[in-house]
Design brief:
212 residues; alpha+beta; Immunoglobulin-like; 2 domains; six-stranded antiparallel β-sheet; 1 helix
């Protein structure tokens, strides 16, 4: 059968349409896979309650790390209430000789009243200061070598801070937080007992305080 020139044109147009349709299908499938992955990632982060701060360390990590965090992670109070926040340490099995907790808090919504180091794992106090004008707290404590170790997830208390709730607030982010830059010893830090003063603070977690 002789193929007419018009037939070739029609076939070419059909092939182009099929090619475009195939490309659209590929793009749709790729977008669907991406959206599914993003949804799974969001679900994992929304419902995964395990954090590195309270992690149970049966074996110390090969690279020494430590964490500073506040407890409770979230609190609900009424204006006029007094409440406490614990500064806790997880050294993940490493011996440390000193810890510095530098904190910022919302000075309009709450008042820092006092810092109590009774029962702290450290027995020397270098700094214990509240700066109400700037909403800052500085706590630096130490212990002579061989230092302290929190192993097998036995996280321990560094200090307890007392606050007074002043005014209503519904925070979306932490309103008591650590001043922290990883690797810097100018802010919050935890120092390894290695006779070098190595700062092994890996991360920090503050608190969200709701006041009604």
């Amino acid at each position: 059968m002789t193929q007419k020139p018009g037939d070739n044109t029609t076939v070419g147009i059909l092939n182009k349409k099929i090619s475009h349709l195939r490309s659209a299908v590929y793009i749709f499938v790729a977008i669907s896979i991406l959206m599914t992955c993003l949804a799974l990632f969001w679900i994992y982060n929304a419902y995964n309650t395990e954090t590195p701060f309270e992690t149970y360390y049966s074996v110390a990590p090969q690279k020494p790390i430590a964490y500073l965090y506040l407890s409770p992670q979230q609190g609900n109070y009424k204006a006029g209430d007094e409440f406490t926040v614990d500064v806790l340490i997880n050294t993940a099995g490493s011996n440390v000789v000193a810890s510095a907790a530098y904190l910022s808090y919302d000075k309009i919504k709450m008042e820092a009243l006092s810092i109590d180091v009774t029962g702290s794992v450290f027995n020397m106090t270098a700094e214990k200061e509240i700066d109400a004008n700037d909403g800052k707290i500085k706590i630096t404590l130490g212990k002579p070598t061989p230092g302290i170790v929190t192993f097998n997830g036995n996280n321990v208390k560094m200090a307890t801070i007392s606050f007074k709730a002043l005014d209503k607030t519904n925070p979306t982010v932490e309103n008591i937080s650590f001043d922290f830059t990883k690797g810097s010893s100018l802010y919050s830090a935890i120092f390894l007992d290695d006779k070098k003063g190595t700062n092994i603070l890996e991360a920090t977690r503050g608190s969200k305080i709701f006041i009604n």
